[in-house]
Amino acid sequence: MKYWYLEKYKHIKVTELNLLKNDLKFFFCIKKITKKEGEALLLIDINLLKEEELIILLHYIIYYKKSSLNKIVLIINKLLEIPDNSMPTTDYTLSEMLEEIKNLSGNRPYKEKIQNNNIAACYNCLNVFYVDKISYINKRNICLCPFCKSTNLYFDNDYIPMNYYFLKLAKLYYKQTPLGCNFKNIQKLLKNFVFFKETSESIVLNTKIFKNTKALSSNKKVTSFEEEKLLYTYYNVLNNYDLTYNFNLTIEVPSLEDKNKFTFGIFLIVFLAESFGENPYLKKVFLSFKTAGDSIFYKKLFKTFITFS
Ligand SMILES: [Zn+2]
């Protein structure tokens, strides 16, 4: 299912509303919902609402109408019926991915493209969806994302990857992080504060966490959904620490097969870029490896990211 992380909120209690709020913050980036828009959706029978309307309504209720727990349960159960539509990870190298991302700004989502495409991806809210959901077109003839109303869309016939980490990297490239960092700032932060050696004075995120996300240790090709799950798992562990003071972080990188090493490397880059870009207390990150070969592999990948221009 597409909204797998809502499963645990199927029978949500009032005490869990804040957890749900945090999860929505992690998974969605939608524009501020107006009262008019929210109230209008509230009047419609939930069974008649489209996926994107359910998402908007869920946010509206959580933020402005805290009492409607029954309605939240109904919306969540509707969203859980939506099947998984995640795309497999890409075979591109990191520099090919970054090159594609750089070219995205010249690739505008003109209205005419709807006819020749099936799927669209948004690198603002990271949603991947069928083009028939697109109903907003602006005055310049550009399609807007049905979920977040941004123009950061591209289509499947552009032959550009649409997996989660690709969209995350594109977002890092074009958008500022919550702390106001742009892509160049992020590159500098990773260059100056990520170290390829062990340290003892830090919070350790170890291989045990990784074992909960079995996808990367199997032989099957990883999906976008599994990338999302891995990132979510690490964020959750990190969020469970009391991080209101400066801290160092050590990540024990698990031993992986070659093809999964790449996915984990991209995960590390995205995770660290976002962590530095939104957590003012994160000072230094140390990466520790099982083998010298691993260390060389990841160092090379980081270098590609840091030096890309
Ligand atoms: Zn969007």
Distance between the termini: 37 Å
Number of helices: 11
Average pLDDT confidence is 89
Helix content: 40-55%
Main sheet properties: 4 strands, parallel
Q: What are the segments in which pLDDT stays under 50 over at least 5 consecutive residues?
A: none
Net shape = globular
Bin the strand percentage: 5-15%
Give the quaternary arrangement of the chains. single chain
Tally the structural domains: 3
Kindly state the number of beta strands: 7
Q: Would you list the SSEs in sequence order as H and E?
A: HHHHHEEEHHEEHHEHEH
Derived structural class: alpha/beta
Hetero groups in this structure are:
zinc ion
Radius of gyration: 20 Å
Biggest sheet strand order reads 4-7-6-5
Describe this protein's structure:
It is built from 11 helices and 7 strands. The longest helix is centred in the last third of the chain and has 21 residues, at about 260-280. It is α/β, with parallel strands linked by helices. The chain folds into 3 domains: about 5-80, no CATH class; about 110-160, no CATH class; about 165-305, no CATH class. Zinc ion binds near residues 124 and 127. The site of zinc ion has 8 residues, from loops.
Question: Which terms summarize this structure?
Answer:
309 residues, alpha/beta, 4-stranded parallel sheet, 3-stranded antiparallel sheet, 11 helices, 7 strands, globular, binds zinc ion
What is the topological layout?
Blueprint lengths: L16 H11 L7 H8 L8 H14 L4 H11 L14 H10 L15 E4 L5 E3 L22 E3 L8 H11 L8 H11 E2 L7 E3 L1 H5 L12 H16 L7 E6 L5 H21 L3 E7 L3 H16 L2
Parallel strand pairs: 4-7, 5-6, 6-7
Antiparallel strand pairs: 1-2, 1-3
The structure holds zinc ion.
The site of zinc ion (ZN) has 8 residues, from loops.
